[in-house]
Amino acid sequence: MSRPLRRHLISIDDLGFEEMHRIVQRGADFAAGRLEDARPLHDAVVGILFRRTSTRTRTAFSAGTLRLGGRLISYGPGDLQENTGEAVEDTAAVLSRMLDVLVARTAGSEAELRAFAAQRQMAVINAMSAAEHPTQALADLTTLLRRFGRIDGLRVLYAGEGNNTASALTLALSRYPGTELHLRTPSGYGVEQRYLDRAAEYAAGSGALVAQRHDMADLPEVDVVYTTRWQTTGTTKADPEWRRDFEPFQVDKAVMDAGAGALFMHDLPAHRGDETTAEVLEGPASIAFEQAENKYHSARAVLEWCVGGGPAGDGDE
Ligand code: CP
């Protein structure tokens, strides 16, 4: 069976800057209702494989597929024969002969996703791995673009665990001219050095600033304060006393006041009383639920790009 070539999204680092920003802009176009007639997935079949729980990402890609004219096959954590020992390479060889796109939230590293992506007939989308959550970053950039009309020069304070959302945000934001990303993470729970190193390379070209500290003193004035849940989906912490290390990083009213008019973002799900308070999450500065809606708009932009759709139709690879 012959099908057009497909594009994979495993890491933000896989995307050229123009390509990444085009998806971000396209997400904003979908959100504005300018692309309601777009059906780039007409006749396409999309597999949705989630080995971890999800409310937003799974629904965004499922609804996005249906809205773009595609059809769905949904796999839960126990459904594929990988569970009984079939090799991931064999699984990929079979699925790629039948599906156009596979949206996958794996249980661990990106290795399984890279194995799925070792072919070009079926696009593979990372719907969150242990290390990185690239579709979250794209939705977050679309949220910034919609709110501020630009991304260049925006200043973000990220407080909390240096998890997969933080890694993707670090890789994405550092590529925009003049942006600032102030990471405040508990010691031992920071963004991994390899992401900071990559972001430093991007920042050398873009003039961005990425700085990580392990305290909440001397908070800078920012445009956005961002946090995520302390217990990242699918992870556990070895230290039973881990909360002691996290408590100083809660985003409460005092942190927001230090931000001097900053908006509040949260990738959700939220645990009120942990990483933030109900007062902040439900307060006037919070755009967390608008951000969640943007996951749907951004998912359509990602799906469109993966099947070679969009304004240029050919990408910049
Ligand atoms: N933010 C996010 O990825 O949400 P879900 O885990 O519900 O998909």
What does this structure look like?
This protein is an alpha/beta fold. It folds into 2 domains: about 10-130 and about 295-315, Rossmann fold, CATH 3.40.50; about 135-290, Rossmann fold. The protein is about 35% helix and about 15% strand. The chain has helices spanning about 15-30, 55-65, 90-95, 110-115, 135-150, 165-175, 195-205, 240-245, 255-260, 280, 290-305, and strands at about 45-50, 70-75, 100-105, 125, 155-160, 180-185, 210-215, 225, 265. Strand 1, helix 2 (about 55-65) and strand 2 form a beta-alpha-beta unit. Helix 5 (about 135-150) packs across helix 6. The protein is globular and about 60 Å long.
Any chance you could write out the topology, listing elements then pairs?
Elements: H1 17-31, E1 45-50, H2 56-67, E2 71-75, H3 88-95, E3 101-105, H4 111-116, E4 123-126, H5 134-148, E5 155-159, H6 164-173, E6 180-184, H7 193-206, E7 209-213, E8 224-227, H8 242-246, H9 253-258, E9 263-266, H10 278-281, H11 288-306
Parallel strand pairs: 1-2, 1-3, 3-4, 5-6, 5-8, 6-7, 8-9
Bound molecules: phosphoric acid mono(formamide)ester.
